[in-house]
Specification:
Elements: H1 11-19, E1 42-45, E2 51-56, E3 61-65, E4 70-74, E5 80-85, E6 90-96, E7 102-109, E8 119-126, E9 132-135, H2 136-143, E10 150-155, H3 159-169, E11 174-176, E12 183-189, E13 192-197, E14 202-206, E15 212-217, E16 221-224, H4 227-232, E17 243-246, E18 250-255, E19 261-265, E20 279-284, E21 291-298, E22 301-307, E23 310-315, E24 320-324, E25 330-335, E26 339-345, E27 348-353, E28 356-357, E29 364-366, E30 369-374
Antiparallel strand pairs: 1-30, 2-3, 3-4, 4-5, 6-7, 7-8, 8-9, 10-11, 10-17, 12-13, 13-14, 14-15, 16-17, 18-19, 19-20, 20-21, 22-23, 23-24, 24-25, 26-27, 27-30, 28-29
Length: 376
């Protein structure tokens, strides 16, 4: 389940490479993730770097920072206190139960050398009870939910195209779902939790006792190369007409007012507009399994929040937050630099932004932020 990544010089793609959401061999270009900020939001704190996901509660907002590997609570006075440190090399998503008595967060350890393997987990903490830790990485290695999904070249392949796309993606020209896990987002659902695994390309159910099962595997995302697409990624003419199925890369899962799930996905290929803005928002009926694409055309759909008037989507690489109504119609909510995560509570939208990171050195040159917007 290696996210197939075309090698480009897009600084935006390098931003996510640095914080571990995607792997983009050779994509890191010198530069910065910062951009102009024209938002109207009120800044609540700048003591964050990579706020992957938030969970707003009566106590305040829990913030999972993937760069500092911490789960913190942002209180109404703006103070930020550490609640937990990730059990792996990165802490990912976080959510809270509706009554606020339980929280869950995700951790991933990435391989750092030859022969090493990934590990990932979800920790469920309930007041008055011992923490429950479920081994998501072991489940992936045992079940590999997308093992039957074909990625890569699926139509009109030829030897030249296979060689070119192997070089551009750093992997096989065609392959089945591989073993990989990067749980990136979690949502409270009933008496359990739903986990979006960005590397597993799936949604997993975890009950209160830590038992794991597969809810859904997200579909592959095929594109057929045009001459313009080939030129944009530096591919030879022999790839024109080739259909290539990218991985789905789910980045968030939320529960709407009807009990359905709302899922955001990255395009699984370049996060630049080279192949078009292909991020999507999906709805999934968890009972019937019916999956529907609500909207597409997003540039880096890294997170979503359910508001009273639709779905708010963070477009990291477009520098904006977009509102999608339930018919799929999109409108600009606000422009903001590096929007990474969103959460709604009451009439307030909370947005977490990625810090200004120098891609040539990995140095943090400016802080991230948590800010709030009034949406009613």
């Amino acid at each position: 389940m290696r996210r197939t990544r075309l090698i480009t010089a897009a600084t935006a793609a390098a931003a996510l490479t640095t914080i571990g959401l995607v792997s983009a061999p050779g994509a890191g270009a010198a530069g910065s993730t910062g951009s102009s900020d024209t938002s109207r939001g009120r800044v609540l704190t700048t003591d964050v770097i990579a706020p992957y996901q938030m969970a707003a509660t009566a106590k305040g907002a829990y913030v999972a920072d993937g760069f500092t590997n911490t789960l913190s609570l942002l209180r109404k006075d703006g103070s930020l206190s550490v609640v937990a440190t990730g059990t792996g090399s990165e802490i990912g998503g976080v959510d809270a139960s509706p009554d606020g008595r339980s929280i869950a967060w995700l951790s991933t350890t990435f391989p750092s050398g030859p022969g090493e393997s990934f590990s990932s987990s979800i920790t469920i903490r309930t007041q008055g009870k011992k923490d429950v830790v479920a081994n998501l990485g072991k489940y992936e290695k045992t079940m590999n939910p997308d093992r039957d999904v074909t990625y890569g070249i699926v139509k009109n392949g030829n030897p030249c195209a296979r060689e070119a796309l192997r070089g551009l993606t750093g992997g096989p020209a065609t392959y089945k779902g591989l073993l990989d896990s990067h749980p990136y987002a979690v949502a409270s659902w009933g008496d359990g939790w739903i986990v979006a695994d960005a590397a597993g390309n799936d949604l997993l159910k975890v009950d209160a006792k830590g038992a794991i099962s597969t809810l859904a595997v997200l579909p592959a995302q095929p594109i057929t190369f045009t001459a313009e697409m080939a030129a944009a990624v530096g591919a030879p003419d022999c790839v024109v007409g080739v259909t290539y199925a990218f991985e789905s890369v789910p980045t968030d899962v939320e529960v709407d007012y009807r009990g359905n799930l709302v899922v955001t996905t990255l395009p699984g290929g370049p996060e630049s507009p080279a192949l078009g803005a292909r991020g999507s928002v999906w709805t999934l009926n968890p009972t019937s399994g019916a999956l529907k694409r609500l909207a597409t055309g997003f540039l880096g759909a890294t997170n979503a929040a359910i508001g009273p008037d639709g779905v708010y989507v963070a477009e990291l690489f477009a520098g904006r937050i977009t509102k999608v109504d339930w018919s799929g119609r999109k409108s600009l909510f606000t422009k903001v630099a590096n929007p990474l995560s969103l959460e709604v509570r009451g009439g307030t939208l909370y947005a977490g932004t990625l810090a200004d990171i120098d891609m040539s050195t990995g140095q943090v040159d400016g802080p991230g932020s948590i800010r709030s917007y009034w949406i009613l």
